[in-house]
Automatic annotation (TrEMBL):
GO terms for biological process: L-lyxose metabolic process; rhamnose catabolic process. SUPFAM superfamilies: Xylose isomerase-like (SSF51658). The gene is rhaI. It comes from Saccharopolyspora montiporae. Its EC number is 5.3.1.14. This is L-rhamnose isomerase. Residues 370-390 are annotated as: Disordered. Keywords: Cytoplasm, Isomerase, Manganese, Metal-binding, Rhamnose metabolism. InterPro entries: L-rhamnose_isomerase, Rhamnose_iso-rel, Rhamnose_isomerase, Xyl_isomerase-like_sf.
Length: 390
């Protein structure tokens, strides 16, 4: 088989932007143990510097998402200047109403108006931060839910979320978006207040045009046809962003494309069909991952390259041939068109294209050979490494 030609798809590939989560550069783990990794960032500034390294080697990651309060600093305008000085921008601001004691029974859905007030105010504070950082997306994931049937009224909680979100939505600037993420379980085990795309869709539609849904690939029950949801949200004009990661069991937050590369291909094919890669598309792509045992910077490099490689394969689908086979009800033929693209090894062609644009042909190897990881380990030997959450 001859090497695939990327001619028709390089404009789209050159536009590709994958936002990195600041928290991927801190230590993370499970409830059993958080292992440290030499050279791990100690501050929000160092996390941003590490994200900038990923962008420098790939050209794929021009923005960094923040999580508040994990990335709380005294001066967000200065943090923005720091990022821009390193060649990246600050991106999505993620709110966090799942770690404070007062949120034990919920945040925006809590029955006590005082707790709801605190949770709403936290989001208003995030909007203030966004004014300083230049961020346009406020991403909200709620841990709210219950553990036992009867524990609280699911219906009343849904109404309270709608009211709370409306108050936050009212304060958005015209160019800002409220992005509502869903997740089917964890930390709540009986019911979650925003468990699925339908609930997120109902809530964001009630808010207005500036509210959209975030699809985190790890937030569905095993066996869910995630690409169907991608298709539907694109069709309805409410797919705001992706949180990419991969999973074997639950919300594993492993490297995107590691557990099920074919699912990533099917998702990206639906993005292509639905216009999500078109110029001016409102769909944004983000990683939401943790690197529990591998080094963080190479983990993020591998991740953005996985997305790039699978995007190339999805863009290589012969859509005309696919349409013809579908129209003729050529079941096996249509499937073959899709599988042909999926089975295409785009790595040599992408390596060549990267080199032609002045990037290392193999960014993971270039990083390993640069000695930067050892340099970071020596330079960051003192002080407290950032952890998942700080
Ligand atoms: C919840 C989630 C959400 C949070 C992140 C740390 O599981 O996916 O996006 O902000 O993890
Ligand atoms: Mn997420
Ligand atoms: Mn998650």
């Amino acid at each position: 088989m001859t090497a695939p030609r990327l001619d028709g798809i390089t404009d789209t590939l050159a536009r590709q932007a994958i936002e990195l989560p600041s928290w991927a550069f801190g230590n993370s783990g499970t409830r059993f143990k958080v292992f440290g990794t030499p050279g791990t960032a100690r501050t929000p500034q160092e996390k941003i510097a590490d994200a900038a390294t990923v962008h420098e080697l790939t050209g794929l990651a021009p923005t960094v998402a923040l999580h508040i309060p994990w990335d709380e600093v005294a001066d967000f305008a200065a943090l923005r200047a720091h990022a821009e000085g390193l060649g990246v921008q600050l991106g999505t601001v993620n709110s966090n109403t799942f770690q404070d004691e007062i949120y034990k029974f919920g945040s925006l859905a809590h029955s006590d108006p005082a707790v709801r007030r605190t949770a709403i105010d936290h989001h208003l504070r995030c909007l203030e931060i966004m004014a300083d950082t230049g961020s346009t997306d406020l991403k909200i994931w709620l841990a709210d839910g219950t553990n036992y049937p009867g524990q609280d009224s699911m219906r009343a909680r849904q109404d309270r979320i709608a009211d709370s979100l409306a108050e936050i939505y009212d304060q958005l600037a015209p160019d800002q978006r409220l992005v509502l993420e869903y997740k089917f379980f964890e930390p709540a085990f009986y019911h979650t207040d925003v468990p699925d795309w339908g609930t997120s869709y109902a809530q964001v539609c009630a808010l207005g045009e500036q509210a959209v849904t975030c699809l985190d690939t790890g937030h569905h029950a095993p066996g869910t046809n995630v690409e169907f949801i991608v298709m539907q949200l694109l069709r309805l004009g409410r797919l705001g962003s992706f949180d990419f990661n991969s999973r074997f069991y639950a919300d594993d937050d492993l490297i995107v494309g590691a557990a099920d590369p074919f699912q990533l291909f099917r998702i990206l094919h639906e993005v292509a069909v639905g216009g999500g890669f078109d110029e001016g598309s409102p769909v944004r792509f983000m990683l939401d991952q943790c690197h529990n045992i591998e080094d963080k910077i190479p983990g993020q490099l591998r991740s953005v390259l996985n997305v790039q490689e699978m995007t190339a394969r999805a863009l290589l689908v012969d859509r005309e041939a696919l349409g013809r086979a579908q129209a003729e009800h050529d079941v096996l033929g249509a499937n073959e068109v899709l599988m042909d693209a999926f089975q295409t090894d785009v790595r040599p062609a992408l390596a060549e294209w990267r080199a032609a644009r002045g990037f290392p042909a193999d960014p993971v190897r270039a990083y390993a050979e640069s000695g930067h990881q050892q340099h970071l380990a020596a330079q960051r030997a003192d002080g407290q490494q950032a952890g998942w959450g700080a």
